[in-house]
Amino acid sequence: MSRPAGLQPPRAVLFDWDNTLVNTWPTIVECYRDTFTALGLPPWTAAEVQDRAHGSLRELFPTLFGPRAAEAEKVFYETFLRIHLERLEPLDGAADLLAHCHARGCYVAIVSNKVGHNLRAEVAHLGWGQWIAKAVGARDAPRDKPAPDPIYLALDGTGIAPDESVWMVGDTQADLKSAHAAGCLPVLVGGAEQLTAALLEHPPKLRARNCHELVALL
């Protein structure tokens, strides 16, 4: 998709993290496998994880595990903390995309449903703090995506209003719904084949297959 006529370049670009800028599916799949196994439940396949594991754990786990949600979260993070940094893999073109946004004078931030301190550890591990002004994760704001609260927090203190000059870029329904709720421009990257009727309730204004296409849109 090309940028629609009349749509100005963004003042700020807010990125989701997992599977928008970095490939973390192998880590997420292993964490879910260990969690289900520890609780005596049949583990999801990798495809089921990719289809169902959206949203923050504090919202998703009570619906999956009921009164055992805290136990499940403990197991999940034991696996996660053991492997997440060594498995962290930038998506092709992600670093160039961030550098391009920064060079254009855009305010760049991360808005993720990964717990904040783990998110910031991954940003630091990759050395991407040179381009990213703020990284907002799960539990940093009163509510996580798809609520707009993390977007408001990411923009707090910048003087930038959450309007169409702010692009919220992500790969899931939660990212698009959060953008719509905040009044930002929703941008879908990747995952186009997984669009569903539910996703189309919160349609993207722009779509790109990967980080390289996002550079072209900018």
From TrEMBL:
Its EC number is 3.1.3.18. InterPro entries: HAD-like_hydrolase_sf (IPR050155), HAD-like_sf (IPR036412), HAD_2 (IPR041492), HAD_sf (IPR023214). GO terms for molecular function: hydrolase activity. It comes from the Bacteria. Pathway: Organic acid metabolism; glycolate biosynthesis; glycolate from 2-phosphoglycolate: step 1/1. It is an enzyme of class 3 (hydrolase). Keywords: Hydrolase. The keyword Translocase does not apply. It catalyses: 2-phosphoglycolate + H2O = glycolate + phosphate. Signal peptide: none annotated. Belongs to the HAD-like hydrolase superfamily. CbbY/CbbZ/Gph/YieH family. This is phosphoglycolate phosphatase. It comes from Reyranella aquatilis.
